Amino acid sequence: MKSVIIIKLKDLDIPEFSRDDGKVIRGLIEQLWSQCDEILLDFQDVEFLGISFIDEFYAKLFLSRSKEQILSKVKFLNLDEDYYSQMQSLASARLKDKNRINEHSN
Amino acid sequence: MHFQLAYNDIANIDCLQSIKEEALANNADVIEFDFGDVSDILPFTACYCAAFADELIRLGKYPRFLCAENNQAKFEQIGLDTLHLNTELREPFLLEQTLRPVYSSKIKIVNDYIYFLKSIYAIPSGVLKATHSIIHDLLMNVIQHSKSNDRNYFCADIIDAVLRICVLDSGIGIRKSLINRYQDLKNDLAAIEKCLEYGVTNIRDSQRGIGLTVIKRMALDANGEMELISGNGKLIIRPSETIKQDIGVTYFGTIISVKLKVDPLYRPRLDNFENGIEG
Questions:
Q1: Disruptive mutation site among B105, B144, B207 for chain A (greatest number of A CBs within 10 Å)
Q2: Going edge to edge, which strands form the sheet with B225-237?
Q3: What confidence score (pLDDT) does residue B278 get?
Q4: CA distance B210 to chain A (A)
Q5: Range name among A56-70, B137-151, B258-272 with the lowest pLDDT average
Q6: What is the pLDDT of residue B203?
Q7: Rounded to whole angstroms, how far apart are CA atoms B34 and B279?
Q8: Could you tell me the strand order of the sheet in which A4-8 lies?
C-alpha cells in the first residue's frame, strides 16, 4: 500500500506566503521525501498564493530533482486550477534555467 | 499657493514632479491642489499625491486637495480630502499605505485590500488572483529592495473596465538597488529594463528575481500594460509596443503601475511562461 503524508497548509503557521515561507515548506517536503511514497499538500482555505511563494516551495524543487520524481511524489489537494498552472509554468522555467546552466558548465 | 490641475496633468509623472518641485521651493504654508476639473483619479495619482502630501506635512506645510462636489466621495475614499491626507481616520480606502512597523502583517493588508475591492466591484476571479499576486509581489520588492524608511503606498481601482494598480515607494530606486551586482547599468532606463529579466536580483546566489517578469507577463496576458518609473527613466510595456522615456525629472524611488483589462475569460495561468524567459 502507498504511504502518503498530508501537509495541510492552513495548519502550518505560514505568516506571509512569502519566498521565505516557501523555503520553509520546500524544506519540509525535502525532509519528508524519503519517508513516504507521496506527499499531499492540502490547500484548503488558502485563497491566494504569491508568485515568489510558488516559485520557492515548488518550482525550485526542480533544480535538485527530476521532473518525473517530483510529479510522482508531490501531489495537491484543494488547489485552484490557475495556481496549479502557475506552479507548472514556473517549474518549467526553473527546469529551463537548470538545463541552461548545465549546458554552460559542460 | 494654488495649482489648478487637469486630467492630463495628474496622469503624468513629469508634470506632477514639476509641481512638486515648485511647491517645495515655495514659502507658502498652505498649498492647494485643485482637481475640480478631474472626473477620475488614477491609482498612480492617488499614490503620488498621498506621498507628496505626507512629505509636505512633514515639512510643516498644509496640503489641500480640492475637488468638484460630485467627486467628493471618491476623493474621500482615496483619502485625499479638502483638508489633508487622512488615511488613518477613515476606512476602508482605495489607497493603502504600509509602514515599516506593520510589514510583518503585510499579507493581511493585501488580503483585506482584495476583499475590500471585491466588496465594491464585481471582479472576475482570474483578474482578482492576478491583482493579489501583483500587489503582494510588488510590496515584497519594496520591503526587500527599496530601503525605504518612509511610507509606501498602493492603490487599485477600476476605471473604464480596466483594473489599475499602483505601488509607490520613496526608496533608493532600481538602479541603486542593482548597481552593486550589475555594474554596467549606464542609466535608470537600463536598470528598469534589467530588473524585468528573469532571475535578476541584487541578492547574489539567491535564485530569486522572477516576480517582475511574471507581473509583466500577467499584464500582457490580460491585454493590459506595465509601467515602471525610477530615477529619470520610464518604461511602458504594452502587448503591441514598448516605450522607453527619459522623463526629464528625477523621481527618487520607484513607481510601478499595472493595468489589467477586466475580462471574465482571463486566467493568470502563465502558460508557456518558460518560452519567454532569457536563456
A1: B207
A2: B95-98, B152-159, B162-169, B242-261, B225-237
A3: 65
A4: 7
A5: B137-151
A6: 87
A7: 50
A8: A4-8, A38-42, A74-77
Residue with cell 522572477: B210
Length of chain A: 106
Distances (CA, A) of B187 to A47, B69, B183, B192, B212: 40, 44, 11, 9, 19
Which of B118, B217, B269, B271 to mutate to test binding with chain A, by most A CBs within 10 Å of its CB?
B269
Question: Mean per-residue pLDDT for B158-169?
Answer: 93
Nearest CA in chain A to B127: A82
pLDDT attached to residue A36: 97
Closest CB to A51 among B104, B107, B133:
B133
pLDDT score recorded for residue B79: 64
What is the structure's pLDDT at B84?
A: 40
Q: What is the pTM of this model?
A: 0.93
Identify which of B140, B215, B274 has the shortest CB distance to residue A93: B274
Q: Phi/psi zone of residue B223: left (φ > 0), alpha (ψ -120 to 50 degrees), beta?
A: left
Task: Indicate the residue of A52, A86, A96 with minimum beta-carbon distance to B140.
Answer: A52
| Mean pLDDT value across chain B | 86
More confident residue, A100 or A44: A44
* Residue where the block lists cell 493585501: B110
Asked if A95 reaches chain B (Cβ–Cβ under 8 Å), the answer is yes
Q: Interface pTM (ipTM) of the complex?
A: 0.94
Kindly give, in sequence order, each residue whose CB lies less than 8 Å from that of residue B237, ignoring residues fewer than 6 positions away: B196, B216, B219, B220, B225, B226, B227
Rounded to an integer, the average pLDDT of B242-251 is 94
Q: At residue A62, what is the residue type?
A: F
Q: Are A74 and A39 in contact (CB under 8 A)?
A: yes
Instruction: Report DSSP state, residue B235.
Output: E
All three cell numbers of B176, joined, read 541603486
Residue A17: per-residue pLDDT? 84
Pairing outcome for strands B152-159 and B95-98: antiparallel
